From TrEMBL:
Keyword rRNA-binding: no
Organism: Azospirillum argentinense
Keyword check for Transcription: yes
Keyword terms of this UniProt record: DNA-binding, Transcription, Transcription regulation
Chain ranges of the HTH tetR-type domain: 9-69
DNA-binding region extent: 32-51
Any Pfam family hit: TetR_N
Entry protein name: TetR/AcrR family transcriptional regulator
Length: 202
């Protein structure tokens, strides 16, 4: 039976969503096409009607994961904490640490993306740049800082978030107290770096 364009688009989106979740949870190389299509509620045979290869899917899933993460940022602006502190609190939370499948693609993919197909690397790099720009817009201005200094501050914060989350996840199974300490310290110190005052709402 021929599948309608609408149903085909729905199936493709389901594959991308399932792939993004599984790739973030277990890594690009630890998940196969059959597992992805099963998680999407589809058969393995239909995969190549949507994607030329697993690498092509990985590139699209990477881009979609960044879009999903970036789409959460506007909600932070309604928080009484303020946009930046709300973002730091949400990013450096136990929930984010314990749910990589639904979390930031930078923290999930940074350690392995250099070994992936160039298309995946390109989508990852573009997503990282979008994060830098989004955070830069949310940083309060500092007297005499200038655009270059503000961008440097955004890069430093994002880089610390990604590395800190990786460490918090790595230490959580055997040393949960240290993992929690990493998250708390980053909430405090990055709040100071971002705002220049206070403790970052931690």
């Amino acid at each position: 039976m021929k599948v309608s364009k609408e149903k085909a688009a729905e199936n493709r989106a389901a594959i991308v969503k399932a792939a993004g979740r599984l790739f973030r949870e277990r890594g690009f190389d630890k998940v196969g096409v059959a597992e992805i299509t099963k998680a999407a509620g589809l058969t393995h045979g239909g995969f190549y009607g949507h994607f030329a290869s697993k690498d092509a899917l990985a590139a699209e899933a990477c881009e979609a994961a960044f879009a999903e993460s970036l789409d959460r940022l506007p909600a932070d602006e309604a928080s009484p904490e303020g946009a930046l502190d709300a973002f730091l609190t949400r990013y450096l939370s136990d929930r984010h640490r314990d749910r990589p499948d639904a979390g930031c693609p930078m923290a999930a993919f940074a350690g392995e993306v250099a070994r992936q197909d160039p298309a995946v690397q390109e989508r990852f790099g573009a997503g990282v740049e979008r994060f830098f720009a989004a955070l830069e817009k949310r940083l309060p201005e500092r007297d005499g800082e200038g655009d270059a200094g503000r961008r440097d501050r955004a890069i430093a914060i994002v880089s610390a978030l990604v590395g800190g989350m990786a460490l918090a996840r790595a230490t959580a199974p055997t040393d949960p107290d240290r993992s929690a300490e990493i998250l708390a310290a980053l909430r405090c110190q990055l709040g100071i770096l971002g705002n220049g005052v206070g403790d970052g709402g931690a």
